[in-house]
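Hello K.,

You asked for the raw outputs rather than the summary table, so here they are, unedited. I folded two proteins back to back in the same session to keep the settings identical. This is the first:
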Amino acid sequence: MGIRTRRARTHSRTHFVGFGIAGVLGFIALLCVTLALSLGGVVSTWLEDLPDYTSADAYLLAEPTRVYDADGNEIASYYLQNRRSVTLDEISDYVIKGLIDTEDKRFYEHNGVDPQGVLRAVVGQITGSGDAGGGSTITQQLVRNTVLSDEQFEQSLKRKVREAYIAIQLEKEYTKEQIINMYLNTIYYGNGAYGIEAASITYFNKHASELTLSEAAVLVGLPNAPSLYDPFTKPDSCVSRRNLVLSRMLEAGDISQEEYDAACAEPLVLNPGELTDSIGTYPYFTDYVRNLLLQDFSSETIMQGGLKVYTTIEPARQQAAEQAVSERVASSGDEQLRGALVSVDNSNGHIVAMVGGQNYGNDTEAGQSSVNLATNPRQPGSSFKAITLCAAMLEGMSPTVRINCNSPIQITPTWAPSNINNDQLGTITLADATAYSSNTGYAQVAQTIGNDTIIETAHMLGIDSQISPVAALTLGTQEVTPLEMAEVYSVFANGGVHRDAIAITRIEDRNGNVVYEHQDSSEQIVDSAIIEDLTGVLEGVVTKGSATYVRNNATFNQPVAGKTGTTENYGDLWFCGYTPQLTTVVWCGHQDNNSTIRYQGANGTTATLPLPIWTAYMNAVLEGVAREEFPTSDHNATYKDNSSWTFVGTNQASNEEDWDEEEEEYEEDAGYDESSETTAPTTPVVPTTPDTPSTTPDPNPGNGNTNTGGDSGTGGNSGSGGDSGTGGETGGGGETGEGGSGVSPEPPA
């Protein structure tokens, strides 16, 4: 399930519901058999041990679905807390008429089962008409959601016979008005709202009796597929569904042409009201779990079916993640700043921590949001370059190939990308171009191997989001989610083995029967030797490149690899990093996606936000964990001769000989791009040196009190690093400034 299974590259389905043409035809045959046998023979056996249908209203006391963490602690329950029961006279006539006209226009003529409706559904299935409607009556739907809620996923004729039989009997026990009333008080309308009154408040902040024709039509159309027609997230689909309901009402003669025209012309105007949410502990994660369940279960079952859902979240790691994100975000001084984090156990793909924001709720004026930023697509910036690197290596490009990384470089007649600050990096290896995040170098690589190759690799590694082959693709201009990036980087951590990033391990029904259990579907998708080399390159990002903050501040004893990312105008800040045990992705930005991130008065950088968050979290959860090493391969990767590659801005002679990266170690001033192809702020850039100075003189040593700190400032015993470090892309500023070390501090993020 989203419960994610890789096979389809979108979330798989367990397909518990839906019968299709064969199911409808079988039901027709069943009815014929039932009538012919007069409920005798095998059919009579099916009707044994029926639940008590004489008190259908008792089933309104639904059993909640309970959600548990990895330790077995209950962290959420989904139930009908948001249901507000009302009587028929407290419901707009438009709702009642629209419901009958749309769902069961012969409601007052049949005795619980409508043969004409079944035939109409069959014709719709055969012809592909979306307007034919389903074969189930309102009464049958009520039975399915209440009396037979335990059986609603059974794909059998037996269940359909029981449903039809009880529907007939139910109509002997209750009036049509009572059945309508029970239906309207139990049906799910999306966004946690059960019943027409709760739905009216959720979407329009008014009582069900006060709904206009247009509003009533919106709500009537929702139960068919609440997520598909969600007024908040899919307004166009919602309006189309509303207009279909209105056309049914016009056809039935319940509204005039004038009323129809006026209602169809009305814009969708929402006025959300507040209802108590039952999302529970870790709200962004448990909201994500609920959305996964909605892919395979009906909303009615989720909210009243008594499921037990066992998840992967680990309380200690989740709490460490929330603390790391919230503390850093709060210290920024940027009231609009939000942070997200996803941490995945590399050994099994379990999502052990997920932070989707800092203030869950629906009161936007109070700064609340229910948007899960861990699963919300954003531009990844240079963190996407790791995918390009993998694609290039799969094509046979060695990390030792040399590329002219000066700036700018004309890639196409209309595109000439630049490095940050227009830094002239010289002709360096692809490995160093990664560590120093050269835009110009990676633009040439992408142009050489082709965007289609990069896109194919991205999807193979775990990106489900749609990616377009735009010129600046390799610079991270196409939106992806932190969860997707965690799945991608976990492939690197696992030596080329892919596992789905999963949140749910097992689901039981109210009787304890296992209805879903995750099966590990690990797959070697990239040669282990290539990944070993790739991880070596990404380790360079931490040891000498844009993520040296981790090198200098990590207290755990594990190897680290990863890549930073910053988008245009400092709108998104990323760090995707991994150890042998965990892959953790951190994103920081504004939810509106339209403004520059600030940190303590300066532009936010990866060195001031995602890198400290990542490090604080990993320090907490890996403290005392015995050191492990990244997977190694039993063979060497095979690459094409470096001289076989041609880059638009690189002299062919640069790769006519093999180069020893150790002998040709790049020690000039380096620029470190984290922007897209646009020009970034002009903070001076200096290279980094190891924690312990090597015997090779540093071309940019610390020079005492004449330089400012921050991630790119140079210190010395009297350097002005620390809290006075300057900000900007390369600055780092604030508490991340370096000083007093006598060596050049971290490069920019």
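The second followed immediately with the same parameters:
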Amino acid sequence: MEKQHGKQRLMPRILSTFLVLLVLLAVPMEQASALPKNWTKIESFINNAIKTKTKIYGKVIKGKIQSYCLAFVNDAFQAGGYKRVTRFGNAYETARWVIPGTLKDYNAPKGAVYVWSAGGSHIAISMGGGNAAGTVRRPKSGDPWPYIELHKLGEVGLDTYTGWGYYNEYGNTNVTRSGKLEEIATISAENLSADGKKAQIQFTFNRGVIYKGFKVKTYLKLAANTDYGAPSTEQVDDEASKVYYPLGKRTDGGTQWTDGRDLLPGREYTYKFVAVFTNKNTKQEFEWVSKEYQFKTKGDNQEPVHPTQPPGPVMPKQLEDIAAVSADQLSEDGKRATISFTFHDNAYQDHVQVKIYLKPALSDEYSEPKIENINESFQKAFYPLGKRTDGGTQWTDGHDLLPGQEYIYKFSATIKGTEYLSKEYRFKTKGEGTTAPTPTPVPVLTKQLEDIAAVSADQLSEDGKRATISFTFHDNAYQDHVQVKMYLKPALSVEYSEPKIENINESFQKAFYPLGKRTDGGTQWTNGVDLLPGQEYTYKFSATIKGTEYLSKEYRFKTKGEGTTAPTPTPVPVLTKQLEDIAAVSADQLSEDGKRATISFTFHDNAYQDHVQVKMYLKPALSVEYSEPKIENINESFQKAFYPLGKRTDGGTQWTDGVDLLPGQEYTYKFSATIKGTEYLSKEYRFKTKGESVPSPTISPEPTEEPVPAITYGDADDDGDVDVFDVLSVIDYLVDGTECPDMVKANAHSDQQVDRQDLMAIIDMILK
């Protein structure tokens, strides 16, 4: 509704609005929200077609829709005021238009759409109770064909059922689900070369299922290896029915074989795929994950002929080769135990990083590992579990084990850059078993914390050194057994520090986190360090309740007092050392046209090493985040590492990123060098390219979210205000299907559909 209706027409319109509200609120909420808009008109059209056995395909648009079944679905929804979908030619293609449901799930709600994508392809409308309305696949003698009838889904006679979803007049996927990749694709390995050096792995979408715009992660490893390396990632922007990855070198020296080195003959390999789809409206990612598959290369097994392995934990080795693993000291009450590993004679070392993983036997995933860096020579590492009986802190996890329960554990030990990983082991605690709590499921969908709680920062001290941040559950929304994570960083910092995690096991309404030192020397102020006066900080929360994670927006507060220059936060690990201690960093060889440069670091005299992994990070100076680093493993002794940027003038490939720099622009860069398992990280540096500045095509950094969201939900008429005109706009949509000027903002209830809940939410906004 436009405001130019005028004040003289406003009062009658408002009165009619509330009369409509009374009518709308008289209908049960669940029924209305479960059906498409104007379902009564759609259902009337369907029932008439079934009753008369009318041929419903007369509005087929030549060259766009040839399938009678699809024409019927379009006609039915068009009768309800929907736009006709003409972008797909048949039901075969429509499999990627509707939103896929669960395979072989014939219990779609009334008003949903069923799709088959093989054996002839078919589309029909669910009428509830496992019934579908659509064109007859096998008409009786003498009946017109095709005509519309009500039939059970199992009577359709097609061999591949794609699933069900909701009619979408714009062809945009509003809902995306995760699942097993095998539900929508077939996975295989083929084209195995006779010499055993090349192969091809692939997945092929099921017939009729074609996707556009998704990301593929491909994992490959020797079957004997414990862990996969980093996956190869590819963005697929074209319509694809088949995604394939050749492995091994090309015989002509080209680059088709994607990993750039040959496979090993007569060896078993393991691989898997992850297809990542992004919801077009919410931008949330959903993963379809495959099982693991194996193939064996042809030829005789032989030792690898690759050069010396680069430094670092490339291939985990077996911890049992150098140590024995055990669990002992099981307490009689079943609440405590000790797990340990003991180096074999003369195998123990100093400077060892130990990780210990523990989980209940019935749990799918381990908790975060406990990490210990041991800097002296030792033979046995032991880890007590459970509370100490004297109230001390020796028992490292801080809570008791459960009596009569099985636990699974494993270790890793990293020695001189090589990781030794143990097998999995079990032990059972003593005592009478109690019912173990159900393992917490992995959160699949992150929801908005503001839906159930309010977030704030208060209690700012006058000296600017202390503050308290908190979130408060709305009335009756608070829960017991909540895991809270609090994230904090200086506002100018790129990354948050590690979150503070608290498990709250009793029902509570407010969680608060004091920051800074206590004035009396105590430990209440949880981070143990004073805040800086006159500085802005950014924070956010997450709360995990019954396996669902609720994540807040980002918020800011500014401490009181006179501001001082805050030290630049260094987002580096604890054991990371400063690269400048052993090397000098510089940028030079700036071309006159501003398109090329070289950045480098040079080891100080006698400081250079062999077996160094170098990571180079680059970004436009105004950008918030670096791009993915360029990684190089240098296996010979060298003094200088240099990285040319931009295209080569002779068309070659020396300039490593393949894209010219922009003239007259500032860039920021940094390096890390990992030597014998220790990472040396440089400071950030800048250089400015020569030449006249031109507008940069690079994406501007996203500003840190403010407490007030960018979108004014409830502003259905998109005029900048939430008022009665927004109520009128939503009512028009609910009554006759007239779309609001901004359907996204009209979704005030944030549930991916515009219904009466949004109407009531907007009224609440106005009244408050």
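The helical segments are 7-25, 29-34, 39-52, 68-79, 91-94, 724-736, 743-746, 756-767.

Happy to rerun anything if the numbers look odd on your end.

Regards,
P.
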